[in-house]
Amino acid sequence: MPESNSYSLAPLQGFTDFVFRSCYHRVFGDIQAYYIPYISFGPGNKIRNSQLRDLLPENNMDIPVIPQILCSNAEEMHRLAEIVKNYGYTKLNLNMGCPYPMATNRGRGSALLENRDELKQIFDHLFSNFQFEVSLKFRAGMTDENSIFELIPILKDYPFSKLIFHPRTADQLYKGSANRELYARFVQEINLPIVYNGDLNTPADLEQIRQLNPTQSEWMLGRGILSDPFLIRKIDHRLPEIQQQRELKREFHDSIFEEYQRQFSDQGQVLMKMKAFWSYFANSFSNPSKAFKPVKKASSLAKFKTNYPEIFHNFEL
């Protein structure tokens, strides 16, 4: 059995932005690495301002972050990696796991797993021209989960710092379940330490994976943390008393709300961000659908400010 767990936060577009990361790190501080949601080229070969703002070093001070890029070829990779390098970062994560058609239809994310020649060109160029500590986040292929085993010789040819595997195919999106048996087989065949990602929502989920791979100690958490900010403390048997849980939970929420109000002058944008936050955060209350309802129904930021304190008062953890 591993002596201790190591946790990282998955890069979830629209959810784990720098506001979430900084507030979680300040209030809980349980995570060893925060992966910044990807930057990529959009219309006109431009990167969205929101993606660049999320990457800015001044928005990630004193937090152990790792930028992520989403590309379709070596040329795109080079331009994105240059941006990351020019911001002073020394670590880089390649996204080869994004399952959404808006990415895969352009040869990005999981689609790259099917394009072995392009994959090798990207890896060759990256390791030859940059000095990053490079990690790779990937799925089990587009449609055939067993195709991932064909990639093992390629992956073993390059000095990746970490391999982060989400054992779902792209066509599953987030439906069904991550295939833990597939993950265990992959770990056994590649014979390298792998970070597990996918459907980690309870301590029991980690234990089930450990039954298949007893040495597993590195975990990437995503929606599980959004739904339960105490998840890591539950896993590590460090859950505080109920009153302290209430205080930390309220502090976490209020710090996020205050920071969004500082970042955005548009109240509608603040409300949209808080509704997105609550779409997961409501799961940490005793009746998630009822807890989320007052937030979902809030038609203005003023109404949200009136509604959310009642949720903390009326619903148990």
TrEMBL record:
Family assignment from sequence similarity: Belongs to the dus family.
Domain of life, source organism: Bacteria
Protein's name according to its UniProt entry: tRNA-dihydrouridine synthase
Span of domain DUS-like FMN-binding: 9-292
Broad class of enzyme this protein falls into: oxidoreductase
Cited InterPro entries: Aldolase_TIM (IPR013785), DUS-like_FMN-bd (IPR035587), DUS_fam (IPR001269), tRNA_hU_synthase_CS (IPR018517)
Cofactor: FMN
Record: active site: 98 (proton donor)
PANTHER family named among the record's database cross-references: TRNA-DIHYDROURIDINE(47) SYNTHASE [NAD(P)(+)]-LIKE
Molecular-function GO term, any one: RNA binding
SUPFAM superfamilies per the UniProt record, alphabetical: FMN-linked oxidoreductases (SSF51395)
Residues reported in the UniProt entry to bind FMN: 68, 137, 166, 222-223
This protein's record includes keyword Ribonucleoprotein: no
Keywords, comma-separated and alphabetical: Flavoprotein, FMN, NADP, Nucleotide-binding, Oxidoreductase, tRNA processing
Described purpose of this protein according to its UniProt entry: Catalyzes the synthesis of 5,6-dihydrouridine (D), a modified base found in the D-loop of most tRNAs, via the reduction of the C5-C6 double bond in target uridines.
Pfam families given in the database record: Dus (PF01207)
EC numbers: 1.3.1.-
